[in-house]
Amino acid sequence: MLLKKRWIIYFSDQIIKPVCKKMDTITNPAIVQFLKEHFPGTGFVDGLKIKYRSYICPFISLLSFIRPGDRVGDIGCGSGQFLLLASHFARPSSVYGIEISERLIQNANALFARQPFKSYVFETYDGNHLPEKLGEMDIIFLIDVLHHVPRKQQERFIEHICAVMKPGARFVLKDIDRSSPLVVFNKMHDLIFAGEVGNEISMKKAANLLRTHGMHLIEEHKRTMYVYPHYTYVAQKP
Hints:
By secondary structure, the chain is α/β, with parallel strands linked by helices. The chain has a single domain, classed as 3-Layer(aba) Sandwich (Rossmann fold). Helix content is 32%, strand content 23%. An eight-stranded mixed beta sheet has the order 1-7-8-6-5-2-3-4, with helices on both faces. Strand 2, helix 4 and strand 3 form a beta-alpha-beta unit. The longest helix is centred in the middle third of the chain and has 12 residues. 41% of the residues are buried.
């Protein structure tokens, strides 16, 4: 399958050129305004992440991978802001998020509680045993989670995700590129907000992990937003 490369170096808060035309009118200021209007009043740090993360993470391009009617899964969904955006802007049939923190799952449910979109489920899991429900998803996202997994467990984690997916499902892996010197800024970010230093891997190694576990890479993207060097792979299970 043809692998599409899209290399974008991006430093402003203007709209990222989307993959799908349906995302043409979405801007980061619009996303932030939407999240502010639906902010449920979580703690200060969680609130910052919910409302402003789209300025440093390519949510617009990630949303563009969702097709109307998709069942969307998010591993390490945090407080649910990405799935809330997906439910509002991308027209999925349902969303499903899992997270190891009960507090963040409570945040996610609070975000969705007053929304017209009701086809959502958020569950805690132990970080090791992925729920079988992920096998029902048409597309699964792993957004800035892999570098929080201990280095020796990362390959097994990817293997488990690929194994639970149904044939034809797509896997979107977005993380920080260790091969970039700018990775130091993400390490500082994680130290401040998560109290830990991440285990980032290079974009090349991420591709090798996906291929090793039987995934077909169909798109790859690389962009820097402010000082954060992102890579994204879209892979499909045969």
